[in-house]
Design goal:
Two copies of one chain form a homodimer. With about 190 residues, chain A is an all-alpha fold. Chain A has nine helices and no strands. Chains A and B meet through helix 8 and helix 9 of A and helix 8 and helix 9 of B. The structure holds a DNA duplex (18 and 18 nucleotides).
Chain lengths: ~190, ~190
Amino acid sequence: MTRKRQILKTAAQLFKERGYSAVTMRDLAAAMDMKAASLYNHISGKQEILATIILEVAHEFTTGMDMVEENDKSAFAKAEQLIILHIKIALEYTDALAVLNTDWMHLEGAPYQEYITLRKEYELDFKKILESGIKAGEFKAMNVETMLFNLLSTLRSIYLWIPKKSATEVADLKKELPQILLTGISS
Amino acid sequence: MTRKRQILKTAAQLFKERGYSAVTMRDLAAAMDMKAASLYNHISGKQEILATIILEVAHEFTTGMDMVEENDKSAFAKAEQLIILHIKIALEYTDALAVLNTDWMHLEGAPYQEYITLRKEYELDFKKILESGIKAGEFKAMNVETMLFNLLSTLRSIYLWIPKKSATEVADLKKELPQILLTGISS
DNA sequence: GTCTATAGTTGGATAGAC
DNA sequence: GTCTATCCAACTATAGAC
């Protein structure tokens, strides 16, 4: 792993715990057993660190959405695949995902604009899948915005929950979460 | 409204937008058309502002939960009432709720401990209601932790969504959200 | 109750030696 | 590539005049 990668990984951990604004370059350097000045041989500044962490994981979602849209399964199956996608990314990029969720508003300039665009496109694509599911009679004919809000609220929170889970519990989650989100908890 | 109330209200707005660490006492003073030094005639410091904002709304949840537990309705009805409680608080305390959700980790000392205790108790009470619902056959016999996680993820995100809604849309939400969360979206 | 002035600390970032 | 030293801006909070 390159030194830059190590810095990004350590920064993501610290940002997750304390938030971007509360972590100083000295904190980050100390966590890496070096001095703050040395960080600048690998990155241009604090903002570049934040932008790299967030945009990398944002592009993971975009790529995943593209793959789901390519196949020609039912809307229900696509929704299931998206739920699995969120679980996978939460497992692989736990810290970066936390940073994306809590510190995106501290992005500045072009990276901020890019993040906003990627998020808007992702939500629009998700909405289209839900709408086609309603048309096909797979989902109840209720407010699409409310459906999307409920799904994304839970999917965006998975990273808070996943690190505490064992491998078998995660396997259970991959089965139960689509069930709970799509068919409800009432018996 | 007292000067202290005005400060708390303005601070909650700013903390919601930019986060606790990124808002300075000068920012807060400027938003109130005064100088930073003058703030200290009304509050002891930045931490007191944060603690007051968060603990006030945290106690709203505790009080609401106590009221729900007192009645002897079904677990399903209690869960419905809790969903309505979250919507009501999200409407009345939108900014404070955002601060509670995103900046609780910046609390220090006794207020931090109190918040953690209140949250733990609330989640435990909620879990008990879900468990009694499973026992009574009202809910599916699935993992209670997963059920609770899903419900709280959505309920904790309502504040992000509510300010954009009209009065009629909020009325719809009070009907559709319990339905979506408890009976699912599949037709 | 608000102000000016300022203390004392800490922030991101750079210069230049090794 | 890492260090020491340092710049300078910005931070929370206090002192004391009005």
